[in-house]
Backbone:
């Protein structure tokens, strides 16, 4: 019986396949043909088809477009051939007997003229570097687009002749007339120049261009040449300190690179170096950032609207892209400064195919270390400090559609101290019965390592893809060893380590659907490990001395940048994440109100502990009030699954981060902002006014008075969680053109925290709050060879919790503290000046000598405070100014 | 000849070294003075009267004693302003109540109410517009110390130190929290040590509690031990005081500090404890 059924099924299948096959043979459009139409007109192509088949064409010659075909078919079905050659001509066809009737599809013709895609890369004419955020504008259609993070652009337009304008900040605008009658690849090379040179900040939408003021997204790009002209502390120009000049961005203190954006903590900024997260952003505890300006091609700050492709932080994204290296010629540049020197070498590896770049920085503070001797304790105190970093990158073009980039960063700070001391024999209790001499050495090292492998592929003129594999690693190590003259050998070894490692794989697509319409989508997965070890004597660490955490985050996003109408542009998207905290083969504890353990659960390595899900809608709507006036409304929801849990010291390298866990819920924010932008005098002047409101939930904070002298594994027990509300007003005025360029930015902000367990649930100000921040800066090209930059910054004083009195319990004197963050230090302000003299001229920006004078009027800005308890029971609070006097520096920059 | 060349080379080297040192010194003259500058903030801190600081205790069989002060200024840390015009009221859960008598110097004492085990006491303080309230329960079963023993032990570094061992029966059926003050008179100076005992289980076991000292008691020196059995909030309050006064060397994270309050409503630092007090004297 089953055999019979099977036979019936086979017969039925055979009959069905035969019928389909006969039907296919009956349809003349299914016959296969081999034809070569290269160089033929459409009429000639029809003739060739007539020769190859038994069919004939009927058409009106006046409807045929006057163009040559460049197509060839081998064994293709006729219907596909017809579809290809008629393509976007607006013509359609039908079969009547043996005749193919070609007719004008009127409705289609009227609504959809033939569209062609113009695509390519925007490059620097000298170095061949792709330019990020370069803008292409078609004057006749008032349409445009911006190059993406790899310099690629794509614009689909109706056929015709157009005037194409290519612009990029700091480059000479380029006008090209081109006839668009088919899909074209046009590479655009721009000459560096000062024609559009803005002072330091140019609001340029990285993803879609803001030059035409049609983009709602508000990434802010910084011009690298101008960072190099800015006054640099100890001669070191710095990207993060330059960012602090923007409205809404404030510093954590004088000479500290850590920044706070719109009321957010410094760990709520995502630093990306070639897409790799950087978990510690500073050298020398904040004096210099880890981003070597020599190696950096482009910096974008997203603080208003964070595009859907980014995820992971509440306050901002600082996307730093390093240069690929000169495609044209081998070159070197560098600089010699007071505290550090730099060298960069770049050039082609294979002509027009592969490039390389190596940029290194090394401090030479050791020169001065012999003078850093303290006379307090003994003669033998020595302190040596150094930092270094290395950026290396290579890129390889695998073909016209494919390119690979490999970039890496290695940075390290080292601080070594040694101390030789002697204890006189004072007590017979000394176990060895002799006087003791000892030497103690400490060595502290910290730094980041990142490695990014990226592959760009152009599927077609409209679809761009990038896939990245990213590795990052931050390590902090503290080692102390003591040698004793009587007890030869190590008396104690106290390791202390922090490690943050991650591996990320992600892919991003951009589909340029039409002018003013770009779809962006992608997915990624991110594995990370967080660890902190603290071990006392004896050397062997116990399990509770370590914090070990693992997590995996998977994400998907889709976004659409769309010019809805002539006056309305919208960028909307959604990022979805699934976060999982994973076990590490250790116990996870639960705690009571007194921070005591009440329960424990063992989790095997990789075993899920907790899952969290996050939907992050991001919307930005812009409305044109006039030709150069735009109003933009933004709503962003962001999730953050990691937090920095360290001492409240800016740029503290101990830098302990913890991912979300059962106790630590993911941070989230709802961010609204309204921004008005206006260009005046053809872009010579620009004004920006903005309002923002941000509410942040699950914000971690230390329980008041909590101090961990127990095992680090209990760190989470010190945390309490609450809400923070931040709001503010920002404005920026700029003069972009001319020999004298200037800008002024001002921010007024308020931020209030509310934690049930702090201050009895009453609101209190956050420690990053700086109500008033004002920056004034000016660049003056004195002549062709000299530029002078002046900068004045003002910040309200930092908020602190300090003792304002004493009280006693059972005769024990205790500090009486004012409410949390109630005390405000004195306001910070200072004036900096730099003079740069160029050997060949300002335009060339080659060899130069830069003289910087920081804190010109000797302002004693408070950097931090500390308490000194006297033997008589008195306590005094001192404030320390790190830069109370003028700090001069000289840097010689060279290029050959 | 070779020797002379070496001398000349050495002199040149010295000369170069000298130039580098001079250059370095020049740079340092410019940079180093600007490294740090300290300024005392005392004058900048506004002197505002702080809240009432409460030290309130009612011990078993004793009258309540409440001491009210205010924080002293940083410059004069021993001079705590006393609160002499407060109205202090004590109630218990058996319907007794009285307004405490001001003895002077901010000390307030009950005349009728005496501490009893298993009773809950409520304290209310009014001083002008300020109001402070607290509540405390006196443990029902006391920790009774059987004996105390003095020993000499060597510490990790090999020094001889005193150690006092207390022996007692852990009361069953209740969680026990006790803090201990050990006072030693030595060289006309009083030294205080604090210890903490916590037993959440109430497991009715016989216990040995070792109290290590960082000195060696000699003959004639007396260690006076006062054991205060208190409720949980007061226990952790005293523990926090110890942590704030002497944080461990390996404190990795230092949280924003706070004023300590055990069980008081309002922003007042301090405590109100109904306690069972035991005193033991140990002589080596």
Residues:
């Amino acid at each position: 019986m089953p055999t019979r059924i099977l036979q019936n099924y086979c017969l039925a299948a055979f009959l069905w396949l035969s019928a389909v096959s006969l039907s296919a043979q009956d349809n003349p459009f299914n016959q296969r043909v081999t034809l070569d139409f290269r160089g033929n007109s459409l009429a000639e192509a029809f003739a060739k088809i007539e020769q190859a088949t038994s069919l004939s064409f009927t058409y009106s010659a006046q409807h045929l477009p006057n163009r040559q075909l460049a197509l060839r078919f081998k064994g293709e079905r006729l219907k596909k051939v017809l579809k290809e050659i008629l393509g976007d001509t607006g013509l359609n066809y039908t079969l009547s007997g043996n005749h193919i009737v070609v007719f004008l599809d009127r409705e289609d013709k009227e609504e959809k003229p033939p569209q062609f895609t113009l695509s390519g890369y925007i490059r620097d004419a000298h170095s061949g570097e792709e330019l990020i955020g370069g803008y292409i504008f078609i004057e006749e259609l008032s349409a445009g687009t911006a190059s993406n993070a790899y310099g690629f652009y794509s614009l689909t337009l109706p056929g015709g002749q157009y005037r194409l304008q290519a612009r990029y900040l700091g480059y000479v605008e380029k006008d090209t007339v081109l006839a668009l009658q088919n899909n074209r690849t046009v590479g655009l090379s721009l000459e560096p120049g000062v024609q559009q040179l803005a002072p330091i900040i140019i609001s340029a939408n990285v993803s879609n261009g803001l030059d035409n003021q049609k983009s709602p997204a508000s990434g802010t790009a910084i011009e690298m040449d101008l960072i190099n002209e800015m006054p640099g502390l100890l001669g070191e120009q710095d990207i993060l300190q330059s960012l602090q000049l923007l409205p809404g961005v404030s510093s954590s203190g004088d000479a500290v690179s850590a920044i706070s954006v719109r009321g957010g903590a410094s760990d709520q900024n995502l630093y990306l170096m070639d897409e790799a997260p950087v978990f510690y952003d500073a050298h020398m505890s904040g004096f210099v950032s880890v981003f070597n300006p020599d190696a950096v091609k482009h910096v974008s700050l997203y603080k208003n609207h964070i595009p859907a492709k980014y995820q992971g932080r509440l306050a901002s994204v600082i996307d730093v892209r390093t240069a690929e290296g000169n495609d044209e010629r081998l070159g070197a540049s560098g600089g010699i400064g007071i505290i550090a020197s730099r060298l960069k070498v770049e050039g082609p590896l294979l002509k027009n195919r592969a490039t390389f770049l190596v940029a290194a920085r090394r401090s030479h503070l050791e020169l001065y270390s012999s003078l850093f001797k303290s006379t307090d304790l003994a003669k033998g105190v020595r302190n040596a400090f150094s930092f270094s970093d290395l950026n290396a990158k290579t890129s390889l073009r695998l073909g016209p559609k494919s390119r690979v980039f490999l970039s890496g960063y290695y940075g390290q700070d080292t601080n070594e101290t040694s101390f030789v001391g002697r204890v006189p024999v004072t007590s017979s209790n000394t176990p060895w019965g002799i006087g003791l001499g000892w030497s103690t050495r400490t060595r502290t090292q910290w730094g980041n390592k990142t490695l990014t492998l990226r592959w760009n592929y152009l599927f077609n003129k409209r679809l761009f893809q990038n896939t990245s594999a990213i590795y990052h690693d931050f390590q902090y190590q503290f080692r102390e060893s003591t040698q004793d003259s009587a007890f030869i050998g190590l008396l104690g070894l106290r390791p202390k380590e922090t490690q943050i490692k991650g591996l990320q794989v992600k892919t991003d697509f951009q589909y340029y659907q039409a002018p003013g319409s770009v779809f962006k989508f992608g997915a990624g997965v991110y594995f990370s490990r967080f660890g902190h070890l603290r071990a006392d004597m004896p050397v062997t660490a116990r399990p509770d001395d370590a914090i070990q955490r693992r997590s995996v985050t998977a994400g998907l996003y889709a976004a659409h940048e769309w010019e809805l109408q002539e006056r309305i542009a919208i960028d909307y998207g959604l990022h979805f994440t699934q976060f999982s905290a994973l076990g590490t083969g250790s116990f996870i504890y639960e705690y009571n109100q007194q921070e005591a353990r009440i329960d424990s659960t063992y989790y095997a390595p990789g075993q899920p502990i907790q899952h969290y899900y996050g939907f992050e809608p991001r919307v930005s709507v812009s409305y044109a009030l006039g030709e150069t006036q735009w109003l933009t409304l933004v709503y962003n929801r962001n999730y953050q699954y990691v937090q920095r849990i360290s001492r409240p010291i800016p740029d503290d390298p101990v830098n302990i981060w913890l991912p979300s866990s059962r106790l630590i819920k993911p941070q989230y924010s709802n961010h609204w902002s309204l921004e008005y932008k206006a260009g005046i005098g053809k872009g010579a002047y620009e004004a920006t006014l903005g309002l923002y409101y941000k509410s942040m939930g699950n914000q971690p904070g230390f329980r008041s008075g909590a101090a961990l002298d127990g095992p680090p594994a209990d760190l989470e027990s010190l945390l309490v969680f609450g809400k923070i509300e931040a709001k503010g007003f920002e404005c920026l005025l700029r003069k972009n053109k001319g020999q004298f360029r200037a800008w002024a930015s001002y921010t007024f902000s308020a931020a209030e925290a509310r934690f049930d367990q702090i201050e009895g649930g009453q609101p209190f100000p956050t420690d990053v709050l700086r109500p008033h921040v004002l920056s004034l800066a000016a660049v003056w090209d004195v002549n062709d060879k000299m530029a002078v930059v002046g900068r004045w910054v003002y910040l309200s004083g930092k908020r602190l919790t300090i003792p304002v009195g004493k009280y006693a319990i059972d005769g024990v004197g205790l500090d009486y503290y004012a409410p949390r963050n109630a005390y405000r230090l004195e306001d910070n302000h200072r004036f900096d000046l730099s003079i740069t003299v160029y050997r060949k001229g300002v335009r060339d920006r080659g060899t130069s000598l830069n003289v910087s004078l920081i804190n010109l009027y000797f302002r004693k800005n408070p950097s931090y405070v500390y308490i000194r308890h006297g033997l008589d029971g008195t306590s005094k609070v001192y404030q320390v100014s790190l830069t109370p006097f003028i700090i001069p520096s000289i840097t010689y920059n060279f290029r050959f | 000849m070779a020797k002379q060349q070496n001398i000349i080379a050495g002199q040149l080297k010295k000369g170069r070294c000298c130039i580098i040192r001079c250059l370095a010194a020049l740079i340092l003259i410019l940079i180093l003075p600007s490294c740090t500058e300290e300024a005392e903030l005392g004058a900048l801190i506004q002197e505002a009267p702080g809240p009432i600081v409460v030290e309130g205790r009612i011990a078993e069989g004793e009258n309540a004693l409440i001491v009210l002060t205010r924080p002293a200024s940083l410059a004069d840390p021993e001079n705590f302003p006393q609160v002499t015009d407060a109205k202090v009221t004590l109630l218990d859960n058996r319907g007794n109540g009285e307004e405490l008598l001001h003895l002077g110097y901010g000390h307030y004492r009950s005349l009728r109410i005496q501490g009893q085990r298993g009773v809950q006491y409520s304290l209310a303080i009014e001083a002008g517009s300020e109001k402070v309230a607290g509540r405390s329960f006196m443990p029902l079963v006391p920790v009774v110390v059987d004996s105390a023993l003095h020993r000499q032990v060597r510490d990790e570094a090999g020094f001889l130190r005193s150690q006092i061992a207390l022996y007692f029966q852990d009361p069953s059926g209740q969680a026990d929290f006790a803090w201990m003050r050990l006072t030693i008179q030595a060289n006309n100076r009083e030294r205080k040590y604090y210890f903490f005992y916590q037993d959440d289980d109430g497991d009715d076991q016989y216990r040995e509690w070792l109290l290590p000292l960082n000195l060696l008691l000699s003959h004639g020196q007396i260690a006076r031990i006062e054991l205060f059995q208190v409720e949980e909030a007061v226990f952790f309050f005293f523990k926090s005081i110890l942590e704030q006064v002497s944080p461990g060397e390996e404190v990795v994270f230092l949280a924003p500090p706070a004023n300590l309050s055990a069980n008081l409503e309002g922003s007042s630092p301090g405590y109100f404890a109904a306690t069972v007090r035991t005193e033991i004297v140990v002589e080596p």
Remarks:
- DSSP finds seven helices and 57 strands in chain A.
- The first helix of chain A runs from residue 2 to 26.
- The domain at 25-111 of chain A is CATH 3.55.50.30 (Phage tail protein beta-alpha-beta fold).
- Chain A touches chain B through 71 residues (CB under 8 Å).
